[in-house]
Amino acid sequence: MWLGANQQEHRVSWERLEPDSNMCSNGCMRWDSQRINEAAAPALLPMQNLVRTVRTPEFEGVTFHEVAAKTALNKVPKASNMPFGWTVNPTRGCLHQCRYCLSPDTLILMADGRNKRLDEIRVGDRIVGTSLGDRYRYYVETEVHALWATRKRAHRIVLQDGTELVASGDHRFLTERGWKYVAPPRSGMGQHPYLTTNNSLMGFGLGSASSAYPRPLKNASYRRGYLTGMIRGDGMLIDKTYTRRSNGAPYRVTIFRLALVDADGLARSQAYLAQEGITTTLKPFLAATSSRKALNMIVTSKRDHFSRIQELISWPRVPDGQWEKGFLAGVFDAEGSLSGNVLRISNSDEEILSHAEEALTYFDMPFVREKARENGVATIRLTGGRSGHRKFLHVVEPAITRKLAILGKAVKTSCDLGVAKVEDLGVDVPMLDISTGTGDFIANGVVSHNCFARKTHEYLDMDSGQDFDTQIVVKTNVAEVLRAELAKPSWQREHVALGTNTDPYQRAEGRYRLMPGIITALADSGTPFSILTKGPLLKRDLPLLKEAAEKVPVSVAVSLAIMDTELQQKVEPGTPDPRARLNLVKAIADAGLECNVLAMPILPWLTDSAEHLDLLHKELARAGAGWVTTGALHLRPGAREWYMQWLKEEYPLLVPRYEELYRGARGGFATYASADYKKWLGQQAASARRRHGFLDHAEATWRGRTSPEKPTADHESQLVPLDIPTGPAQPALF
Q: What's the pLDDT score for residue 639?
């Protein structure tokens, strides 16, 4: 989830981009070992005017598509109600920090209840994600929308129950305190919440199942064990001699029969018997009734088949691990169940029960045997909660998927998933990630985050998931084209806004240095302009902006609405933290330029308290901000779905309040908060501005102008600085 005055481009890994050993003398970053495709872009990028495609180690996993733009100035439609008519966007797309996440051998929980390795996952696979309900988070079915791979620095997370995961430092897992990154941010990247030994992950874990007990090999030993558990548990073997009533002659009956409701159990049994040379016939056994499902059976009457089956299901003298796995799978399919939070195996045969107990002990799966009922049936019940169940299902892999179902069940942690340690392995390893419909998935039994696909970039025929984060379009000639457009006689020197769509000072600007040319072109043509940014890289161009301000009106605005660093990084992960932005405000003010702040969006019940607004205005006044413009969160279609999903995950109790606050006239969602709320917020913000001297500053500014109207207390909440273009329209989310 990302919010802010600018859009997706702020999902970046911010670093100090000042001249150093990795930069040329003029401040341009060296791109050593870059790979260039001068001829054409990938087939999925039918872009016109493409000059070259560049990849570089400094931006791992990112491809820059350098294009020769035909136009630089973008006309803003009047219907948009924006307070400026023209914009310039030097780039398209964003640099996003969390993409390649997990080791390829991580086990992903499939919708049928089985586990599959991450490197076996394919687009379109149905897997398990989660969704928030009224009280709990629930396991739900979701689809894999995208997958991709790279190499990244590996970190090992070890949980108290023995579960291990290998992930990149920027991957996130769900804890009892919300989503947290694996590792703290690198220097210069701001702050974000990360895993410590005080955290516990959500899910059921796998214990040591993912390492010490891999999936069964399904070899001959496993097949024999499975048939032993299934046939001894639920099959029928008859070899008996009868006497005919008609003539008293003896006759022998030899038959094997296995009848089940579940077709997958029958299919596996029939296939395993066929691999042993035993052919069976599938037939109906009992028709369905109103209270019972239909039963089918596999059957054979051949005596050599009968003898071979008896041989296959005889108890081995020293069973190996694969036989034990197969036996547990077979007896569970025949006589087991998983209902509620109880996994059990029931039977009246002491030999079956004893062998089941030996197998469970072999794999260190704790259990208890309950007292036998009057009919002699005793039950073995696994302990350890859902983690024990998933470990059992992973280790033995029963055939009947109905018994593996987890969909619809609440996400409750019954084992110790506390973080025992997080260690940096110090090496780069292959990493994979997937994108799903729910924005998460189950990795080694814990809830793992992934990124939602976005409906942008598609106008370039790029996909809205991976491409948006990794395929960045750069208008390398934007300054030259802009200068030519500004020189046309038809240009009226209208105000041009930079940073309304993409942040002009995102990290790639350190490489391309497009802004100096843009600033110079605007100033030389006599065109007033404004810049809105979150990026400290603007400090590089302060001398140039001071020169421009001597020629044309120039205003600079910084986006900052959240003072709580932890909340800010939840909402805008990877962007500069509040302290870095305050330092940027101070640097702009110290350079003698008017620096205004867009405190937008204010998040209802999260950042709209009197205490938060007071602290925000106090710190901005101390940093030297000229004015603060506040605005309530807008929930436009597209951004609305993302924000509400994030709210459900992080602050579920607020969801009903938001639904009421943004209720439309016809009952649906409205884009804007209610008029009463906006009026109240305006009053709170005006009060904070008054307490911290912003109105005095505005009046001093007014005295140096020729404006016919002096600001008064009656409309102070609508007062805005004269140089910065503002208005009722909040910059778009994402």
A: 65
